[in-house]
């Protein structure tokens, strides 16, 4: 809702799995534009792919297992030489053909033997694990899909909308906290309250936000959200990001005043919480990229 998805938008979802918000974005997008989903956890993104296929929502979507802090693939509609499905296939050998979930037997055996890790590292190249027929991938070569562009070019060829629904401690999610009744409160201490872990998360969140914003075109909008209630993972990230990015401005979120939420610690940011508003916890901030 906060992203204000419009027909024709090219949307990047940088922490996409398991895909609830990605599916909603695809639903709002209709039959133009594209959605690129990225997640570092292969098994979670595979679940997202299953959901897209089950609900027939994946026609305009592509999914990459990749580290969102270094991901650098621009929207498909930005390739001026992008071929349509009908015209592009015969001309080059190395083109992406229509998606098939059935990989050749030899390829599957190789993947099983190599024990591919469940999560990727910064240095691993992105791996395309799904693309829809109208995602713009069909007809491109690998080189075209992974073409690197300068930051200046991203200003005009980047994504119109970016969602960074960042990894966090989930301490605002009532359902998540209830799980610790079974897992034990010591586990809560380690996973949610440990200072080193939350410091690392702050860095990850800032890096995800910074890279998502880099891939946004001038005039585009980015939404940063977490389901944590802490200042460190929300307002502090926003404050530091604004300090480091002079071309970023906080943007008013249309309609937020009518939602069951209250103002965050920084004007134009919003908080949902279980105490006053009887919802799960959520922090939302929206940025726009201005020309400098
Ligand atoms: C809060 S969940 C996202 C939920 C998702 N937006 C949805 O609506 O279903 C955060 C996600 O960030 C992913 N993640 C963690 N580190 C990442 C990284 N460096 N790059 C990309 N994704 C990452 C996790 O695997 C997890 O799936």
Give a description of the structure.
The chain is globular. It folds into two domains: 10-161, no CATH class; 166-289, Vaccinia Virus protein VP39 (Rossmann fold, 3-Layer(aba) Sandwich). Strand 2 (34-39), helix 2 and strand 3 form a beta-alpha-beta unit. It is of the alpha/beta class and 292 residues long. Strands 1, 2, 3, 4, 5, 6, 7, 8, 9 and 10 form a ten-stranded mixed sheet that branches. 33% of the residues lie in helices and 18% in strands.
Features of the shown structure:
292 residues, 11 helices, binds S-adenosylmethionine, 2 domains, 18% strand, SAM-dependent MTase RsmB/NOP-type domain-containing protein, single chain, RNA-binding, Rossmann fold, alpha/beta, ten-stranded mixed sheet
**Chain-averaged pLDDT:** 87
Q: How many strand units?
A: 10
Q: What count of helical segments does DSSP give?
A: 11
Distance between the termini: 28 Å
Rg, alpha carbons = 20 Å
Run of helices and strands: EHEHEHHEHHEHHHHEHEEEE
What is this structure, in a nutshell?
This protein has helices at about 20-30, 40-55, 85-90, 105-115, 140-145, 150-155, 175-180, 180-185, 185-195, 195-215, 235-245; strands at about 10-15, 35-40, 60-65, 125-130, 160-165, 215-225, 250, 260-265, 270, 280-290.
């Amino acid at each position: 809702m906060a992203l204000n998805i419009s027909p024709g938008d090219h949307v990047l979802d940088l922490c996409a799995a398991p895909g609830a918000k990605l599916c909603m974005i695809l639903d709002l997008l209709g039959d133009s534009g594209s959605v690129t989903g990225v997640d570092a956890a292969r098994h979670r993104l595979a679940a997202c792919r299953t959901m897209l296929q089950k609900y027939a929502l994946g026609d305009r979507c592509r999914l990459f297992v990749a580290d969102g802090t270094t991901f650098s693939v621009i929207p498909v509609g930005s390739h001026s030489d992008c071929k349509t499905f009908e015209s592009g296939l015969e001309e080059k050998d190395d083109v992406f053909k229509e998606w098939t979930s059935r990989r050749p037997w030899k390829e599957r055996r190789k993947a099983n033997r190599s024990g591919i890790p469940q999560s990727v590292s910064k240095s691993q190249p992105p791996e395309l694990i799904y693309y829809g027929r109208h995602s713009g991938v069909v007809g491109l070569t690998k080189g075209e899909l992974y073409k690197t562009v300068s930051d200046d070019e991203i200003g005009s060829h980047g994504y119109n909308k970016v969602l960074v629904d960042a990894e966090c401690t989930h301490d605002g999610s009532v359902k998540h906290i209830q799980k610790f009744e079974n897992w034990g409160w010591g586990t809560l201490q380690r996973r949610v309250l440990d200072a080193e872990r939350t410091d690392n998360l702050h860095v990850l969140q800032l890096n995800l936000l910074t890279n998502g914003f880099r891939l946004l075109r001038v005039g585009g909008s980015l939404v940063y959200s977490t389901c944590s209630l802490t200042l460190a993972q929300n307002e502090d990230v926003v404050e530091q990001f604004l300090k480091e990015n002079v071309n970023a401005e906080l943007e008013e979120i249309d309609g937020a005043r009518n939602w069951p939420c209250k103002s965050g610690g920084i004007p134009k940011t919003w908080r949902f919480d279980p105490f006053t508003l009887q919802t799960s916890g959520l922090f939302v901030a929206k940025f726009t990229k201005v020309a400098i």
